[in-house]
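Chapter review: from sequence to fold.
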Amino acid sequence: MTALDGVDLSVAAGEVYGVVGRSGAGKSTLIRCVNLLERPTSGTVSVAGRELTALSGRQLRAERRRIGMVFQHFNLLSSRSARENVELPLEIGGSLTRRERRARADELLDVVGLADRADAHPAQLSGGQKQRVGIARALAADPHVLLSDEATSALDPETTRSVLRLLKEVNERLGVTVLLITHEMDVVKAVCDSAALMRDGRIVESGTISDLLTRERSELARELFQLGPAPEPAGAAGAEQTTVLDVTFHGDSTAQPLISQLARTYSVDVTILGAAIETVNGQTVGRMRIGLPGRFEDNVVQVGFLRERGLNVETVAVGAAADETVAPGTATADSLQEVGS
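The token string follows.
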């Protein structure tokens, strides 16, 4: 069985990149290949300009110290305090004195908001606090890249939001590239600059969030804005067919009354079938499903009106019973994984 098949993933230095997909899609295997805990049978893995697959054992161990890892289940040592857990990778590295290790651990616990819990043991910490200790530990060796494998899936929603804000702060404050593995679209919405969708060991779609939101038939954009299946609108009086469109608003267009302008300009009855407004990585984006009377060919000018104003317009269905559905397109890629270079 092939766990990863022709994966081509490039993560720019300093960005937060999310990899999403269902269980068994290959996400965790992918992240284990990034630090070579799993070695791919072919292809190359490069992190921060170094091709890890070409390094010797000793060189690889040295590079791994510059790749931090945050785990789903925290993986803290119960016999150690929060400070001592953060010090652990520094002890293994062996380059700092005990006093220097303690100072570094205290500094990082302050960064993650746990300066007053340095002496507490894991059993005395909440789930969110444990994950913050895990993040501080991952940052101890001053990594280029921070890998997060479902780091928020064991947390409640409020704690998840808190941890995601922390990861974004770490990214912006320390300039660390963050690669997130998740099955939760809310994680992508909250912090990611770019994202990729995995299925059956392949990357089927990828790009920056702003690009994905304006890309026609983007599966990721559909997941970010779930408006449900296409309904069966009755259409305007006398119309035998109805064209159903998904319209995405972003940037300045979110504050413009473009749908009402469309209705007035062309004297057309616009049916609102669904709508959603989301904040995606600090950007307000809206998606609306509308019905226009008639066939798509009858509405080409109206669609052009919306597209000329910077809106992304997709045909969902055409017909009185929504009998002609346009399937989402997909994109595939192959060969190279490059992170934070």
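Two observations follow directly from the output. The first helix runs from residue 27 to 34. Residues 233-239, 320-338 have pLDDT under 50 and may be disordered.
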